[in-house]
Design brief:
By secondary structure, the chain is of the alpha+beta class. It has 7 helices and 10 strands. Strands 5-6-7-10 form a 4-stranded antiparallel β-sheet, covered by helices on one side. Strand 1 and strand 2 form a beta hairpin. Helix 2 runs parallel beside helix 3.
């Protein structure tokens, strides 16, 4: 067993975790050691039932998010501790799903995308992986927090053994799927754009003039308290003054127990993402015209976002979350 530091325990509140199938809660607090295995088995069963029709699978594995869990077959099998074991099981599980697709002769007509949602949660140390040589990690808008692996496979459509250096975001996936399938997009304005042209030609230009990075203000549900943190256009990334969580060169925790993050500060900074993926050389004084151009983009986008914002739901009372007695 491990002891959670009092300073962390006082801030922790987690409702009992429901495992949901369709519209029903089938279990509370499932064993994390078997979440990867159970999810994979469900995906395989789905393919077996639907392989004669077009289908879509969104496989959002819980791992390697903390707390880590791995089935007995993979525990202790890697050279990189529990985190390595978890990654090995994920690799095996993805392989099982791809094998099932191949079994039914669907490989050449199936688009497969493997992607992460964010960079490593560095305060968890050996349970979090590494983003090096990228700067910082999860909960920041530096490259270590937002630049993640993305592998796509679609035989005959996506060129083999190619690397695409053009930025793209997960917001672009839905419009891409819509273009491929001929589906209509919702009437409301959305941020994403189809990157189908990038899939079939990795040297193609981005459909976006720029991408914009935000963070919420003081955990408030009010959008007006959000603030723009960075703008990415082509090879340039403009970062605005803000504070951010960082380890300041310290090591993260061990065994699933995090350390306390420090706080970093940054002034306005311009980075060349072709030559400086670690975001160490501030070029704002060398290229003031680029700073001006990206700042104008950010202002225009901010105004557009405010004009098109829609109401959101927000839970302010934790007792409204369904919990087990």
């Amino acid at each position: 067993s491990v002891t959670v530091p009092a300073i962390l325990k006082a801030k922790m509140f987690f409702p009992h975790l429901p495992l949901i199938e369709n519209d029903s809660i089938i279990e509370y607090d499932p064993d994390p050691d078997f979440l990867t295995k159970r999810s994979t088995e469900k995906a395989i069963e789905f393919i077996e039932r639907n392989h004669e029709s077009p289908f879509f699978i969104y496989m959002a594995y819980s791992m390697p998010h903390v707390p880590l869990g791995v089935s007995p077959r993979f525990r202790g099998k890697s050279k990189n501790g529990l985190y390595g074991d978890v990654i090995q099981e994920l690799d095996h599980s993805v392989g099982q799903i791809l094998s099932k697709v191949d079994q039914y002769g669907l490989t050449d007509n199936t688009l497969v995308i493997f992607i992460s949602d964010n960079g490593p949660f560095l305060i968890y140390g050996n349970h979090a992986g590494s983003a090096e040589p990228l700067r910082d990690g999860k909960k920041t808008n530096f490259e270590g927090g937002v630049r993640v692996p993305c592998i796509m496979k679609w035989p005959g459509m996506i060129p083999e053994n190619e690397v695409c250096l053009t930025p793209a975001m997960t917001i672009d996936l839905m419009p891409t799927f819509a273009e491929i399938t001929g589906a209509s997009l919702p009437p409301q304005p959305i941020d994403g754009k189809s990157i189908f042209s990038l899939l079939i030609n990795p040297k193609e230009e981005s459909p976006h003039e720029a991408y914009f990075f935000y963070r919420g203000g003081d955990n408030s549900p009010e959008w007006d308290n959000s603030e723009i943190i960075a703008v990415r256009s082509g090879k340039w990334k403009l970062v605005y003054p803000h504070t951010y969580p960082t380890l300041n060169g310290r090591h993260g925790g061990k065994g699933g127990i995090p350390v306390i993050n420090g706080t970093g500060t940054i002034d306005t900074a311009l980075f060349d993402m072709e030559t400086d993926i670690s975001e160490t050389e501030n070029l704002k004084d060398k290229y003031p015209e680029i700073v001006k151009k990206l700042s104008k983009m950010a202002e225009e986008y901010n105004n557009e976002l405010k004009q098109n914002r829609r109401s959101v739901s927000w839970v302010t009372d934790s007792t409204t979350i369904q919990q087990r007695d």
